[in-house]
Amino acid sequence: MYVTDKILPAQPAPSDTKGPVVWLKENLFSSPLNILMTLFAVYLIYLLVPPAIQWAFIDADWFAATRDGCSREGACWAYIANRFGQTIYGFYPEAEQWRVNTAFLMLIVLCIPLFINSFPKKMWLGGFILIIFPFIAFFLIHGGSFGLVEVSTDKWGGLMLTLIISIIGITLALPLGIILALGRRSHMPIVKSVSVLFIEFWRGVPLITVLFMSSVMLPLFMPEGSDFDKLARAMIGIILFQSAYVAEVVRGGLQAIPKGQYEAAVAMGLTYWKSMFLVILPQALKLVIPGLVNTFIALFKDTTLVLIIGLFDLLGVVQNVLGADSKWLGFETEGYVYAAFVFWLFCFGMSRYSMALERKLHTGHKR
Amino acid sequence: MSTQQKGLTPGKPPIWNDPHYRALFFQVLLIIGLGVFLVYIVNNTLANMEARGISTGFAFLNERSGFDILQSLVPFSADSTYGKTFIVGLLNTLLITALGIILATILGFIIGVARLSKNWLIAKLATIFIETFRNIPLLIQIFFWYFVVLRAMPSARDSLSIADSFFLNVRGMYIPSPVTGDGFIFTTIAFVIGIIAAFIMRRWARNRQFATGEQFPVFWTALGLIFGLPLLVFVLTGSPLTWDLPVLERFNFAGGTRIIPELLALLIALSIYTAAFIAEIVRSGILAVSHGQTEAALSVGLTPNQNLRLVVIPQAMRVIIPPMTSQYLNLAKNSSLATAIGYPDIVSVFMGTTLNQTGQAVEIIAMTMAVYLTLSLTISVFMNWYNAKMALVER
Question: Are B156 and B181 within one domain?
Answer without folding.
Answer: no
